[in-house]
């Protein structure tokens, strides 16, 4: 009996030893991170950075050349199209003359005075001749009825009278021209001598430049008083509350965008994203170099901000924003996290946790959204899949959810 008990004890010890060896040789369960395959709506979006800009901006330019007065308003000041005067434009001052040019201008003035005197003398001479012709005509008209003078002599007297009258008119015009030439010559001496103040009295001609629309001053191009050329920019005006966003998408994403699609504006500095809507996709692209030095074809997409200005009081012109544009949507779909998918040849695969082991499943995906993809085949919902599966995971490997 003792011998039999001893044999049974040795057999039990041998079985236990074999069990311990088998347990020691079993592969260790890997700790993995899991996600749940769910059902729900999937929004397919494209996203990129952009900037805001005022929809309607007005650059006020000089309508004529002259001297613009100082713009007393500053960037950010409000303006009204009805009563805000930005600045005024006055005639420019004549150029300063050097001593030689001054002497020449004074000589031309004296010459013009001489021409005026000569023209006035010619006018007086024409008047004397005209008066004499008028007296001769009166005498001829008295003698003609008595046949004292001939008809030819009467005609000659009338011709002399009319000729004298026209000579007086011509001499008068010559005097007027000579006087204007004198004024022109004298004008060359206005404000030509340093230290001499020939400023015209107040109330001279000037043109007021008014604000073209209600809003705020965005930029002042010509602040101080000084000469301006025709068409020179003076002030830029716009309404910061009337904003739009310009998002430059890569051309592959831009072809998916259509006017009217919903969008959200984030990373603008506020607590909540802003609602927006696509207004236009510009028909022409451009080349832009990425931060990595790669040339990319980009397309500008213009978004209208739907959120009221009260939700974005501090958002202004040319501020950086980030936009997500919804290009497609599925209301009811099986959703698998993108972190659980990996390439498996030409298809996609995922590891499903089944009975403590990883089971490899081929997955056919459709549309992709933010962090999720639509499952067409392979998963039905509710499964636990391994997120970011390590290279050590194989089909059938024991795993333990973290």
Task: List its salient traits.
alpha+beta, 402 residues, 4 helices, single chain, 37% strand, four-stranded antiparallel sheet, six-stranded antiparallel beta barrel, OB fold (Dihydrolipoamide Acetyltransferase, E2P), Elongation Factor Tu (Ef-tu), domain 3, 22 strands, 3 domains
Description:
- The protein is an alpha+beta fold and 402 residues long.
- It folds into three domains: 42-53 and 241-401, Elongation Factor Tu (Ef-tu), domain 3 (Beta Barrel); 61-91 and 206-238, Beta Barrel (OB fold (Dihydrolipoamide Acetyltransferase, E2P)); 99-187.
- 27% of the residues lie in helices and 37% in strands.
- It has four helices and 22 strands.
- The chain has a six-stranded antiparallel β-barrel. A four-stranded antiparallel beta sheet has the order 3-10-8-5, with no helix packed on it. A four-stranded antiparallel beta sheet has the order 7-6-4-9, with no helix packed on it.
- β17 and β18 (347-354) form a beta hairpin.
- The protein starts with a helix and ends with a strand.
Element pattern in H and E: HEEEEEEHHEEEEEHEEEEEEEEEEE
Number of strands: 22
Number of domains: 3
CATH superfamily of the largest domain: Efflux pump adaptor protein, beta barrel domain
Percent of sequence in beta strands = 35-45%
Helical content (DSSP H or I, runs of 4+): 25-40%
User: Largest beta sheet, briefly?
Assistant: 6 strands, antiparallel, barrel
Query: Might you state the CATH topology name of the largest domain?
Result: Elongation Factor Tu (Ef-tu), domain 3
Strand order of the largest sheet: 2-11-15-13-12-16
CATH level 1 name of the largest domain: Mainly Beta
What number is the mean pLDDT? 86
């Amino acid at each position: 009996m003792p011998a039999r008990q001893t044999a049974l004890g040795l057999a039990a010890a041998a079985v236990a030893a074999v069990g311990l060896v088998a347990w020691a040789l079993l592969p260790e369960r890997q700790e993995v991170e899991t996600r749940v395959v769910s059902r729900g709506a999937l929004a397919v979006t494209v996203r990129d950075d952009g900037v805001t800009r005022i929809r309607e901006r007005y650059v006020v330019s000089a309508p004529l050349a002259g001297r613009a007065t100082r713009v007393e308003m500053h960037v950010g000041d409000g303006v009204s199209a009805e009563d805000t005067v930005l600045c005024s434009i006055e005639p420019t001052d004549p150029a300063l003359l050097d001593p030689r040019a001054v002497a020449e201008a004074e000589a031309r003035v004296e010459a013009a005075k001489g021409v005026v005197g000569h023209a006035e003398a010619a006018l007086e001479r024409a008047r004397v001749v005209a008066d004499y012709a008028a007296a001769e005509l009166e005498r001829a008209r008295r003698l003609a009825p008595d046949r004292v003078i001939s008809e030819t002599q009467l005609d000659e007297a009338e011709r002399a009278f009319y000729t004298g009258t026209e000579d007086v008119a011509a001499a008068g015009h010559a005097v007027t021209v000579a006087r204007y030439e004198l004024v022109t010559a004298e004008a060359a001496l206005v404000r030509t001598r340093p230290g001499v103040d020939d400023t015209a009295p107040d109330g001279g001609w000037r043109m007021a430049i008014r604000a073209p629309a209600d809003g705020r001053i965005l930029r002042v191009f010509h602040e101080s008083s000084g000469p301006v050329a025709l068409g020179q920019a003076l002030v830029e005006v716009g309404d910061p509350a009337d904003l739009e966003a310009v998002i430059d998408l890569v051309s592959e994403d831009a072809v998916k965008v259509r006017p009217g699609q919903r969008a959200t504006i984030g990373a603008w500095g506020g607590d909540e994203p802003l609602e927006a809507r696509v207004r236009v996709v510009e028909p022409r692209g451009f080349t832009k170099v990425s931060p990595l030095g790669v040339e990319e074809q980009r397309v500008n997409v213009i978004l209208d901000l739907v959120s009221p200005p009260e939700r974005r009081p501090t958002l202004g012109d040319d501020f950086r924003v980030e936009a997500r544009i919804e290009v497609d949507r599925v209301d009811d779909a099986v959703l698998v996290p993108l972190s659980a998918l990996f390439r498996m040849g030409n298809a996609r695969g995922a590891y499903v946790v089944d009975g403590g082991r990883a089971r490899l499943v081929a997955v056919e995906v459709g549309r992709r959204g933010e962090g999720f993809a639509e499952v067409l085949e392979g998963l039905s919902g509710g499964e636990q899949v391994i997120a970011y599966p390590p290279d050590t995971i194989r089909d059938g490997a024991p795993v333990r959810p973290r």
